[in-house]
Each structure stands twice: as structure tokens, then as C-alpha cells.
Design brief:
This protein has 264 residues and is of the alpha/beta class. Helix content is 34%, strand content 17%. It has helices spanning 22-31, 59-77, 99-105, 131-146, 168-184, 214-221, 242-254; strands at 6-7, 36-42, 82-89, 108-111, 115-118, 121-124, 152-153, 187-191, 199-201, 207-209, 227-230. It has a seven-stranded parallel sheet with strand order 1-2-3-4-7-8-11. Strands 5-6 form a two-stranded antiparallel sheet. Helix 3 links the parallel strand 3 and strand 4. The longest helix has 19 residues, at 59-77.
Length: 264
Amino acid sequence: MNEIKYNYHTHMYLCKHAEGNVEDYVKVAITKGLKHFGMSDHGPFVDELKDIKTRRMSMDEYKTTYLNELQSVKEAYGHLIDFKKAIEIEYLTPLIPYYNTFLQDLDYLILGQHLLEFDGKIYDVYSEMNLDLMECYKDTVIEAMATGKFKILAHPELFNWKYRNWDHHCDRVSKEIIDAAIKYKVVLEINANGCRRAKVKTKDGEDTFVYPRLEFWREVAKTDALVMINDDAHELAHIKDEATEAAYRFAKKLGIKLIEKLDL
């Protein structure tokens, strides 16, 4: 088993596409020998974004259920594991007034840029990607990191989901994202959930994942960027599972040095 003793990216039933409550995951984390654990379900959207088709908790559920579960678990299990409260959320204009409020409730925010504001519309990166949207993705995550509100950039190469033929545009965008993460001291995440998906080939015929994508992380390996592996767990069985092991082997093969825990 790998030496990783943390996971800071975890989902639960409120997002409508994961199982278990906060306590369920913390119990598994303790059993698996983790020392540091963060619950970071998908953060709620505001009324201005209510027409977006995505699965996540409502603002009411965040206030009345999620925060209560987080605090109850912290009080019950805080002596057994270093438990942190968080959400994973996009950087979108209607949410900008809310990040400080979230940070008053929570220990950290994860930037998970699944949606993009471009040309007056909202685009889902899982559904559509082209050169303009890739540029928008890069600019958006860099602007978000520059705010100082986000500790982790989840699956930073997610632009590759619908743009799989890696080319020089991907190289340039990757370098700019990596440089910004270093500048703003944001942790780049090797996301184990990508290791639960089918592999793809690089243009040189090497096996890789859509994320973590080999070309992106080879560039990271040349730098002193802060890097961690997270489970991005949506099931209890995802905590420190074979996908986590695969992500660890991936990082070690590239010579990437991993941080030992999130600095909060």
C-alpha cells in the first residue's frame, strides 16, 4: 500500500450522484489508516444558476444539512482524525460574492471547473470543448487561483475530457496553468477518480488516463509545483482504493514529489 495518509476530495449523498453521509466516509478513512481527511461535496449554486443541469446540493441543504453534518462529525471524530470541512465549486461570476461566506463556514475550497462562462452562455466541459473554450478554461482557473480563495485545483487537465488529441495548444495551456498554480501556491491534484475510467493512448502510443493525463503531469514533474493525490470519492469503496494506488504509481513513475498534507 502507498504511504499517502490523507484525502481531501470526498463527496456524499447530497450531490445526488454519490452515496453515504459524512460520518460513513470518516469511519472508512479511519479504518484505512488516514490521518487527514476532508469532506468536500459539490457546493451549492445560487438562483442565477438554477437553470444549469447539474447535480448538487441546494443552498438550503448546504445551510441546514451539510454544515450540521460536518460539525457533528468534527466533534465526534476529531480526536481520531484531522477532519476538515470544504466544498468543491466552480469559479463563476454569480458565485463571486459567496466565496468569502463559504470560507467563513469551511476550512478550504476546491476549484473544480466543470462549467465555463463563454460568449454569454454556460458550457459544460464534459460535453463540449474547442480552442476557444480551452482558452476560457485556462483563463478562468488562473483568475480563480489568483483570488487566493482556493487551496486545490481538482483535475487541472479536465479540458482534455472532450479534447483528447493532445497537441501544442494543450501544452501551452498546461504550462500556463502550472505556472499560475506555482505563483499562487495552489495545490495541483492528481485525481484518482480518473484512474477508475478507461485508459487512452497518447500520440506516441503510451497508455494514459484522460485524467491524470501523462503529458500534463510530465510538465508538472519539471517544476516545484505543490501536488497531491485525492480520491475524489463518490462511493465508500473509493477511499484509498486501487485507483488511489494507480495514481500513486503514476506520480512515482514520473518522479513527482507529493505533499504530505494540505497546509491550512
